[in-house]
Amino acid sequence: MNLFLFLYLQLFSVSMGFIRWSSLSSNFQNKIMEFHHCLYNKQELFQKNYQQFIETTHEKTGYFIVKSISSLLPHVDSIGHKVLHANDVYISRVLNFDNMPHDVKREIILCIIKISQWGDDFGSHLLQLYYDIVDKCLH
């Protein structure tokens, strides 16, 4: 409620306690009531406009957030391709290293693959987070 309306209602209620309503002229009573209805209508209009502003702002902000995140996702996805390429290079080097025992090669290669899986799991969590953000922003 805006300050002007609050003050008006406070003064109106206090003044009605001191002044007998019936002692006022009907013309003055009508003017007071017109003013009261005018303020009430303006308050309703303000609340409707405010609500529309909030909804529009929420919608525009939601669109902006979704578009921004969507534009970043291809860059995040490219990391996965780089990791897989790096895995190919590292695994080839490990396999080509002749002085390393077979069981050590196996452990290193499995470790490389496990780290890649963790990265892939992290990517899945990011996609779930993206889904949740879009759901909330476009609600």
Overall form? rod-shaped
Rg to the nearest angstrom?
34 Å
Structural class: mainly alpha
- Roughly what fraction of the amino acids lie in strands? under 5%
Portion of residues in helices?
A: over 70%
Q: Would you count the extended β strands for me? A: 0
Estimate nothing, just give the exact number of structural domains: 1
Distance between the termini: 27 Å
Detailed description of the structure:
By secondary structure, this protein is mainly α. It has one domain. The chain has three helices and no strands. Helix 2 (26-96) packs antiparallel against helix 3. The longest helix has 71 residues, at 26-96. It is rod-shaped and about 110 Å long. The chain starts with a helix and ends with a helix. The model has no long low-confidence stretch (mean pLDDT 77).
